[in-house]
Specification:
109 residues; mainly beta; four-stranded antiparallel β-sheet; two-stranded antiparallel sheet
């Protein structure tokens, strides 16, 4: 059975950026995206109960990230991104980065 894992990101590891996207009709649209480092490699975590963790750079190899949801405050009613709808990931030497394109809703704005 797969356990649900939730991660909390420090606000300094997240940025709001403007990116331009091409629409299906060929026009362009500029939207805000949420970007940041979801996992830091090779650094000790904060104290997690009675232990600390260090995540290796190869930790995400073989992980299924085909249906990951980015939520505000772990609230299923406030989705900010999902992999089938443009939530993307990139592994770099220092961590695992994400870019979420929030839906065009009042709550996400």
């Amino acid at each position: 059975m797969n356990e649900l894992e939730r991660r909390v990101l420090p606000i300094q590891d997240i940025a709001i950026e403007q990116r331009t996207f091409k629409r299906a009709d060929g026009t362009e649209e500029t939207r805000d995206v949420i970007a940041g480092k979801a996992i830091v490699f090779n650094e000790r975590s904060e104290v997690l109960g009675f232990f600390r963790e260090i995540i290796a750079p190869d930790a995400m190899e073989g992980c299924d990230v085909s249906d990951v949801v980015c939520l505000k405050n772990h609230d299923n009613n406030i989705p900010l991104g999902r992999t089938p709808n443009g939530l993307t990931f990139e592994t770099r030497a220092d961590g695992f980065y994400f870019v979420a394109t929030p839906p065009n809703t009042t709550t996400a704005k």
